[in-house]
Amino acid sequence: MHLSKSLRDEFHLPTGVRAYLCGNSLGLQPKATRAALLEELDAWAAYGVEGHFRGDKPWMYYHELARKGLSHVLGAKESEVVAMNSLTANLHLLMTSFYRPSRGRAKVLIEAGSFSSDRHAVCSQIQLNGFDPKVELIELHPSGATFSTAEIIEAIAAHGDSLALVLWPGVQYRTGQAFEIAKITAAAHAVGAVAGFDLAHAVGNLALQLHDSEADFAVWCSYKYLNSGAGAVAGAFVHERHAHFSGRRLAGWWGHNEKTRFQMGPDFDPTAGADGWQLSNPPVLALAPLLVSLAQFLRFDIAQVQARGHALTASAIAELDQAHAGQIEVLTPRDPLHRGAQLSLRMRAGRDAGRVAFERLSAHGVIGDWREPDIIRIAFPGLYAELQDVHRLLEALA
Ligand SMILES: *Cc1c(COP(=O)(O)O)cnc(C)c1O
Q: Does 25 sit in the ligand 1 pocket, CB within 6 Å?
């Protein structure tokens, strides 16, 4: 189906809000979510433990209902994706398997100014493996406000066979820059390193082609552009070529071969594919909102969601340039190849002016968010943002 107009009517807009430009932080609630959640509460009330086998969506197989939608939004095969845990927990699970440092090859390359949780996870993994983050963590600084793909590739090549892992964002949370996943992956593989991606700000925003990118693994959360509610069940991708992975992993019964799981035997026989990294039985009440969101995305070609986000950000850039070029700097790359639905703005007059502008926006019901030291982030999620939102942003700034 063609995404010719926004799905705004299918979402709740918070009270008093005129333009919700914060979907990069917490997506709006789809109106259908409440009923989906109640359906599972009702199934629990009506069936008790039998809910695992009865009703429209037996809980026993509940996480599998997310597979089709996840494969759609990630551009992955169904066997490569799984809904589970939280983003940071999944990052740990996959680094446990795919970050296997050795003496001489223990370095991890991340971007300078990365999201704190990712950095904490990486440092603790380096330590768990008996290495020193001060030595093995490399934080790459961009030559300008944002990176060129070439300088990332050059840095990977320069560190060469000392690199064990390149962990890179799909979209950088602070600047809104989108990265070329396939090229970064190819550069990592060329030096024998693993390529992992944090897609927190990319999933539901960009038309990802994760399988074709050859990335080894990826993780994401589902409360930003996937609109599944605060702390929603996150996801993990493991490329098909690792489907029969036999290396180190943290195991739990839900990752065990489905056919023999309930024999409760002592030996772990991992399910092929991303499912093999599951630990626990699926949190049904938490997954219900994710299924609603994924069903929304499944109605459209993901490239159309991306295109609407790009068109709206392009209008916002044009209007900001026209009215405020002297005062407001757009940090996000202007080339649609290097951004999604987010724009990061900075007041040229400094941090205090930035705070004033940010508070003015809030007072006018235009909701973005503030990232220290001096950045206003706004986003136009392709699914529900509208041209009106751009106008309201400009009105509030005027
Ligand atoms: C939002 C976000 C997180 C959040 O981590 P949780 O485990 O979901 O709390 C982590 N990393 C990045 C890059 C993010 O954008």
A: no
Atom of ligand 1 nearest to the CA of 231: 8
Quickly tell me which residue has 């400009």 as its tokens. 394
Of residues 188, 220, 184, the one with CA closest to residue 204: 220
Last residue of a domain, one of 237, 263, 297: 297
Expressed in angstroms and rounded, the spacing between residue 227 Cα and the centre of ligand 1 is: 14
> CA 308, CA 304: separation in Å to the nearest integer?
6
What are the E-state strand segments in 287-351? Answer: 328-330, 342-347
Cα-based torsion angle of the residue sequence 337, 338, 341, 345 in order, rounded to the nearest 10 degrees: -140
- Which residue segment(s) compose the domain that 290 sits in? 52-297
Q: How far is CA 187 from CA 39, 110, 119, 308, 349, in A?
A: 47, 14, 21, 31, 39
**Nearest one of 213, 214, 218, 212 to 200, comparing CA atoms:** 218
pLDDT tens for each residue of 260-290: 999 999 999 999 999 999 999 999 999 999 9
pLDDT digits 0-9 by tens, 302-332:
999 999 999 999 999 999 999 999 999 999 9
What are 320's two structure tokens? 């900001």
Cis status, amide bond into 373, omega within 30 of 0: yes
Q: Is the pLDDT of residue 3 over 90?
A: no
d(CA 363, CA 395) in angstroms, rounded, equals 12
- Spatial neighbors of 255 by CB under 8 A, at least 6 apart, are 249, 268, 270, 271, 275, 276, 277, 278, 279
Residue 206 lies in a domain: yes
> Atom 8 in ligand 1: which residue has the minimum CA distance?
87
Q: 365 and 325: one domain?
A: yes
Q: What pLDDT was estimated at residue 306? A: 97
Its pTM stands at 0.97
d(CA 259, CA 254): 11
Pocket mutation for ligand 1, best pick of 25, 91, 95, 118 (most atoms within 8 Å of C-beta): 118
Same domain? 182 vs 330: no
For the chain, give the mean pLDDT: 96
Strands (E), 279-388: 328-330, 342-347, 366-367, 369-371, 375-379
User: Same domain, yes or no, for 116 and 182?
Assistant: yes
